[in-house]
């Protein structure tokens, strides 16, 4: 007996609206239909375990097949199946009432509106109509003494439902592919979709005689069941041709939310040009997206791996909603787990942690800058390295330098270099004074220094070339000048005339005779602002990036060169002053082009004079 009916909704054009608004990517029809088949199969398995289904389970594969000539795609399962009444209830009434609500709410709004809808409508089955102009269901319930049912619908609000001879329990969904969806009749296209979305579904998925999924991915197992080799092998499956990961964190929590997964720390060195979208989000082993912003804290987007949670709220297209309490809890949990893992690695094997620091330092600093709670944990294991290659924690370093590097205001001055080779002369001058110098040459370090100055009491950071060594760490005692005030004024005028550059601000200072005759420095504040702007400070930092470079030229009053410049004839004194200035430029890597050529010629002339 055949029954015909009309789906009771108020909108005649429901399917075009579903097709237009529901999903941005039509390929996910296969994910939805295969997921439904897997759900029906798992439910039957559960009933068998509970003793409510006493029949033979037999083989429980979900089979996907395509017939290019007949223009059909078929998804078959041997799960619960449905009676005619259940089809009417679940396909015609529940799903369509949800569809009606969806249409009434969103038919006048733009495509983005669909992202505000929580996935309670049971519309997954109707994604079939994105690619099919006719859909059939052949189903038989697992319950005894039930007849097979055949439902068909052409995408209008009309359907037909009749009994049919079906030998085995389960459901076959047959899609008659529409003319504008020929791509989905290509086996290679279907295999790509199945591999993308269904690779880890818990029931075997067979396509073209081959099972395409792993039903028990390692994140669904207990860590105690797994070896290091299992973790690294899985990483290579996810990211072929990648270097092995440094280490990993196995997530496994069932309260106050369900979350499993594995996060890997890759080797990224000191680059912010990392590849994002490397963490894959799953829901009950169904791939959802690799756009996990908000679920995973921003600084951990550097990580790779898998997160699986049924508690991340999904809208109808299974794109998760960000502004949700569960998402925030998961985000907080992941941050804590990562911090705990790093702290454990540091405690258990400090030497090994130091070896990995060049790879993990970026994660740690990025996290400290992004998240105060992470900072509170990481401050105990973040490492600083000095130019001698020795590592210190924050507290160890403060203790190491505070006796020698306190200035007259009781501030501990931390000296650092951003390029130990280019700033070698300044580093050496600091070391000769018995000071220590840190290497802070990573891409985030300009921001990191600013944060440490805010968080640490009575600590300031100065780059070694920010001033002359005596002024970097000002002490009570001062060096006296051998020059009179008049000579100092004259010397300043001579150098200013020889240099003739408004960006170079000349000052005469009483330095040690062992120091260089001329030292060029960049004021710490201005240089730091420009560094931060280059590193992406944005906003108010833009003004500093556009300012011309400004340098301080410190002429050493106590160096013999000062006396020679003062006592020489005008032309000779200008040449000597320029030569001393060019040597200082050379030390800073600032002597280039025409000025460098002139310096070389002048040096040769002086050698033969």
UniProtKB/TrEMBL annotation:
Keyword check for NAD: no
CDD domains from the UniProt entry: HATPase_Hsp90-like
PROSITE patterns linked: HSP90
Record protein name field: Molecular chaperone HtpG
Superkingdom to which the source organism belongs: Bacteria
Organism name: Hymenobacter nitidus
InterPro entries for this protein: HATPase_C_sf, Heat_shock_protein_90_CS, HSP90_C, Hsp90_fam, Hsp90_N, Ribosomal_Su5_D2-typ_SF
NCBIfam families per UniProt: PRK05218.1 (NF003555)
Keywords noted in UniProt: ATP-binding, Chaperone, Nucleotide-binding
Pfam families found in the cross-reference section: HATPase_c_3, HSP90
Record-stated family: Belongs to the heat shock protein 90 family.
């Amino acid at each position: 007996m055949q029954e015909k009916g009309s789906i009771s909704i108020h909108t005649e054009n429901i399917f075009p609206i579903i097709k237009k608004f529901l999903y941005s990517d039509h390929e996910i029809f296969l994910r939805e239909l295969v997921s439904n088949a897997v759900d029906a199969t798992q439910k039957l398995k559960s009933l068998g375990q509970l003793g409510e289904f006493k029949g033979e389970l037999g083989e429980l594969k979900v089979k996907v097949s395509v017939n290019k000539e007949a223009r059909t795609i078929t998804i078959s399962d041997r799960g619960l199946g449905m009676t005619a009444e259940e089809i009417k209830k679940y396909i015609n009434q529940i799903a369509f009432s949800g569809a009606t609500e969806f249409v009434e709410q969103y038919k006048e709004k733009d495509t983005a509106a669909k992202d505000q809808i929580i996935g309670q409508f049971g519309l997954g089955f109707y994604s079939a109509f994105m690619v099919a102009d006719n859909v059939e269901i052949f189903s038989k319930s697992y319950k005894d003494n039930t007849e097979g049912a055949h439902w068909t619908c052409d995408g209008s609000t009309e359907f037909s439902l009749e009994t049919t001879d079906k030998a085995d329990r389960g459901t076959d969904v047959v899609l008659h592919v529409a003319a504008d969806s020929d791509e989905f009749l290509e086996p290679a296209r279907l295999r790509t979709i199945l591999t993308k979305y269904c690779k880890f579904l818990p029931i075997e998925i067979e396509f073209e005689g081959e099972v395409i999924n792993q039903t028990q991915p390692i994140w669904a197992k207990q860590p105690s069941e797994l070896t290091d080799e299992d973790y690294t092998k899985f990483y290579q499956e996810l990211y072929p041709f990648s270097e092995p990961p440094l280490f990993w964190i196995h997530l496994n929590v069932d309260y106050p939310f369900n979350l499993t997964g594995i996060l890997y720390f890759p080797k990224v060195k000191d680059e912010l040009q990392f590849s994002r979208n490397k963490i894959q989000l799953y829901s009950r082993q169904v791939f959802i997206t690799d756009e996990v912003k908000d679920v995973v804290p921003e600084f951990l987007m550097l990580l790779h791996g898998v997160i699986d949670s049924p508690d991340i709220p999904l809208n109808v297209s299974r794109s998760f909603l960000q502004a949700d309490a569960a998402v925030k809890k998961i985000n907080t949990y992941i941050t804590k787990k990562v911090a705990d893992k790093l702290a454990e690695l540091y405690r258990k094997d400090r030497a090994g942690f130091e070896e990995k620091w060049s790879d993990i330092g970026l994660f740690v600093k990025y996290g400290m800058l992004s998240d105060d709670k992470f900072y509170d944990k990481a401050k105990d294991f973040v490492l600083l390295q000095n130019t001698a290659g020795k590592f210190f924690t924050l507290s160890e370093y403060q203790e190491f330098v505070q006796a020698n590097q306190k200035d007259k205001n009781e501030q501990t001055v931390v000296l650092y270099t951003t390029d130990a080779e280019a700033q070698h002369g300044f580093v050496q001058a600091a070391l000769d004074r018995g000071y220590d110098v840190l290497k802070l040459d990573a891409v985030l370090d300009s921001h990191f220094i600013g944060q440490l100055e805010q968080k640490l009491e009575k600590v300031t950071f100065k780059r070694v070339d920010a001033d002359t060594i005596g002024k970097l760490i000002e002490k009570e005692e001062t060096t006296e000048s051998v020059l009179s005030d008049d000579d100092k004024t004259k010397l300043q005028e001579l150098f200013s005339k020889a240099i003739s550059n408004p960006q170079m601000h000349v000052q005469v200072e009483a330095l040690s005779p062992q120091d260089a005759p001329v030292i060029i420095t960049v004021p710490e504040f201005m240089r730091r602002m420009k560094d931060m702007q280059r590193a992406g400070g944005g906003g108010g930092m833009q003004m500093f990036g556009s300012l011309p470079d400004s340098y301080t030229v410190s002429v050493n009053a106590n160096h013999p060169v000062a006396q020679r410049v003062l006592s020489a004839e005008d032309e000779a004194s200008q040449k000597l002053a320029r030569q001393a200035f060019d040597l200082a430029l050379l030390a800073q890597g600032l002597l280039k082009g025409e000025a460098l050529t002139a310096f070389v010629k002048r040096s040769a002339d002086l050698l033969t004079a």
